Amino acid sequence: MKCKFGKSAALVFGALAFAAAGCGGGDHHRHHHDDHDGHDDYDDTVLVDLQVIDGYLDDAMVFIDMNRNFEWDRDEPRAYADDYGLVHLSVWKEDLRSRGDTPLQAIAVSRKGARDYIYDGRDETGSDIVMSRNIFVNRDMNDGVWYIISPFSTLTDIELNGTSAFNDFQEYRDRLTGIAGEAGASEKSVYDSVDYNVSFRDENDLKTVVAGEVLARKGKLPKSLDELEDLMKALSRGGDDYDLSECRKLTQTIVAQAESDMKDNNRYSGNDLIATIKDVIGKSETAADAKDNDEKTDGEKTDQNAGEKTDEADNTAGPVLVIDNRGND
Fold this sequence. Notes:
single chain; 10 strands; four-stranded antiparallel beta sheet; alpha+beta; three-stranded mixed beta sheet; 329 residues
């Protein structure tokens, strides 16, 4: 079972993880499966620490798509997330400088059935999930960066791709927080490098984690690298993808129920929250199916009534007068 951390503990944990990577980390490649061409000279590299959060997605394959071809190439940095969703990568400064002002793109691929840690509870993903995140890196920096790959960053990448905002740090950040708010997450917690999957008794963290779970479970995220590529290269996205109102309502319902349950249960846990998420989403889908069936039935009744009225009109029209003009010449 996962440990629960307070906000201050998360800060310490993040700092320790980042410091470990920054110290050169003799086991960096071996423990985190970094396949960056076997190089060990960190003086010429920038460290990129990433955390995959839809809950923590354990063993997600995370890579930096240097050439943006939406697949992992052998010379691109890659690692596998641990059960905190953490990966540590390194990028050659020479590669960064050659890209000019274009941000890096980090992509996380998680397979159906992967372990999804939500606070101190554990669930399994119901489908393949692909998430991405623009990474803004100072080409001349000597330390490193920390970013969170989430459902919110994925939708931001998809929406802004091909626009000037895609390459602008502040505009990207503003839209990221905007999308989070539209989905019901807290704009205060979604962009910070501090892990927000630490305390469900923090209302802002709770909203953000639940909103991310709802986006994933309602199928708002790509399920393959090809689908991510198609969405990011499309000139426009469908209206249903833009409309996050249903997800926001579900998030609000789940958060309200969870907060109510916490007041009555001092032992409320991540597993309880998972049960609430599944229950609320399940009921919403059942209600939607029932509504569709009712509309279909009403449509059939309307067609049937229309047919009956036509028959009735034919039967009540009275005898038809037939005039035979034969023999009148």
